[in-house]
Amino acid sequence: MTILNGVAADVLRPFMPNAVTDVTGFGLFGHAHEMAERSGVRIVISDVPALTGALEAARAGRSVLRLKSGDPLIFGRAGEEIAALRGGNVPFEVVPGITTAFAAAARLKTPLTDRSAASKLILATAHHAAGKLELTPKWTGAFPDDATLVIYMPGRKFRTLAEDLIASGIDAATPCVAISKATTPDEQVYASTLSELDDEEVGPAPVILLIGYAIQIPADRARVVEELIRL
Predict the structure, then answer these.
(1) Which string of DSSP letters, residue by residue, matches the chain?
(2) Which residues lie closer than 8 Å to 8 by C-beta, 6 or more apart?
(3) Distance of CA 213 to the CA centre of its chain
(4) pTM of structure
(5) What's the rounded Cα separation, in Å, for the pair 195 and 172?
(6) How far is residue 125's CA from residue 17's CA, in Å, rounded to a whole number?
(7) Which of 50, 75, 90, 96 could be disulfide-bonded to 26 (CB atoms 3.0-4.6 Å)?
(8) Residue 170 pLDDT greater than 80, yes or no
(9) Which residue has the higher pLDDT, 75 or 50?
(10) pLDDT tens digits for 211-227?
């Protein structure tokens, strides 16, 4: 079994045109699905849970591809899938990808670290397994001043999240950028500060938040959107 990033499907066919027979559809993003179809990979959306379908297909001797958007090892349930594959004695490989934080920053032409502003990068999520709901990422002690915080899957209560972060010790004036549907044609960018982060201004899910003084985005978010549209 191979756990791939979404882009990898675009380069499969020249090397293994018939090897990939199934892609289980649990959590499969639309643009990854389109990439696979464009590459000539036959897509079968499984009606059973992804792990069960993948294990059954692999045990039957089929080549199984699990497409994931971004990097499969960053907030992609990889731990659960790897444990299941090892438990089932199914050989597998993982092909790394570009996680959304890095792709979004590159698209915006902003660093995530900076020698004078941020020597630390923290990747967090507000989305957890069933039964474990925490709106704001937690840490012990004061939040480091020289850190960039990236929040994947932050939910929709952005104002509440910002207030929680400020209450934890993060400066209210810290730059904050909310990117909706990052790196897709429908991308929307909202540049603000934690004190001014507004629920209504942020585009539709999926959203990723970049927070920190290393983030270098023009103050006028309309200019950011205009620049991205021209690319």
Answers:
(1) -EEEEGGGGGGTTTT-TTT--EE--TT--HHHHHHHHHTTPPP---SS-HHHHHHHHHHTT--EEEEESS-TTSSSSHHHHHHHHHHTT---EE-----HHHHHHHHHT--S-BTTTBSEEEEEES--STT---SS---SSSPPTTEEEEEES--S-HHHHHHHHHHTT--TT-EEEEEESTTSTT-EEEEEEGGG--GGGS-SSSEEEEESTT----S-HHHHHHHHHH-
(2) 67, 95, 97
(3) 21
(4) 0.75
(5) 5
(6) 36
(7) 50
(8) yes
(9) 75
(10) 999 998 765 544 445 45
Range of the domain at 65: 2-94
Q: Which residue has the tokens 């990854």?
A: 32
The 10 Å Cβ neighbour count of residue 148 is 27
* Residue 11 confidence class, pLDDT cut points 50, 70, 90: very low
Q: Looking at residue 53, which CATH number applies to its domain?
A: 3.40.1010.10
Q: Does residue 201 surpass a pLDDT of 80?
A: yes
Please indicate, yes or no, whether residues 111 and 218 belong to a single structural domain of this protein.
Answer: yes
Could you say which of 94, 109, 140 is where a domain stops? Answer: 94
Count: domains in the chain: 2
In contact, 154 and 209? CB cutoff 8 Å: yes
Amino acid found at 137: P
Q: How big is the chain by its Cα radius of gyration, in Å?
A: 19
